[in-house]
Amino acid sequence: MATIDHNSWFEKGMTFAQYVEAMKVNREEVTRVYEGLTFSPEDLAVWNDVAKRNWRGIVLTADWCGDAALNVPVVQKIAEQSQIELRYLIRDENLELMDQYLTNGTSRAIPIFIFIDEAGEMKAVWGPRSPEVQDLITGMRSQLPAKDAPDFEENQKNVYRDFKQQITTDTAIWRTVIESVKAKLQG
């Protein structure tokens, strides 16, 4: 991997407030998750420990992304509790950075959260989903007809609509994200 100047990418990014303000899709879902999220005492102890590291973060995302509607507000709230300032970059406007953080080496899946230290060195990367959310979407996709079926596109739209609805309203799913991010930050 080429040397990445994470500090300049961080400087380019929007704050959470700027990102939400610019949203044209999923603002309601992001706000619902952000406002509804709560942490356990154990979570807060981990976030307090992480705060001692003086990390920052870069988020590759897009407002149309269903996974971002869940993960952006969860990780933003974790970051706030952990004294991690996050900056947001729109994936398709920042492909040079995105292509350094492909999922499975091939996919520009988002959101991707890149945690860096004060020197700008990458310390942890999380995204695009918790394993449980991956299992959920894999199961939902397995119910789709073949791609060449006449009703494939309509069924796929419905699956993604139902997926986004479920992940942005089910607090048990939110907990899987908290636990997955916590494991990454503790690792």
Architecture overview:
- The protein is an alpha+beta fold.
- It has nine helices and four strands.
- It has helices at 6-12, 16-22, 27-36, 41-51, 66-81, 95-98, 131-141, 152-167, 171-186, and strands at residues 56-61, 85-90, 112-116, 122-126.
- The chain has a four-stranded mixed β-sheet, with helices on both faces.
- Helix 3 (27-36) packs parallel to helix 5.
- The radius of gyration is 17 Å and the shape is globular.
- The protein starts with 5 loop residues before the first helix and ends with a helix.
- The model has no long low-confidence stretch (mean pLDDT 96).
List the topology elements:
Layout: H1 6-12, H2 16-22, H3 27-36, H4 41-51, E1 56-61, H5 66-81, E2 85-90, H6 95-98, E3 112-116, E4 122-126, H7 131-141, H8 152-167, H9 171-186
Helix pairs in contact: 3-5, 4-9, 5-8, 5-9, 7-8
Which characteristics define this entry?
9 helices; alpha+beta; 12% strand; 187 residues; four-stranded mixed sheet
Question: Termini separation (Å)?
Answer: 22 Å
- State the strand order across the main sheet: 2-1-3-4
Helix and strand content put the structural class at alpha+beta
- Mean pLDDT, nearest integer? 96
Helix count equals 9
Largest sheet: 4 strands, mixed
Task: Offer a quick outline of the entry.
With 187 residues, the chain is of the alpha+beta class. It is built from 9 helices and 4 strands; from the N terminus they run ααααβαβαββααα. A hairpin with a 5-residue loop joins strand 3 (112-116) and strand 4.
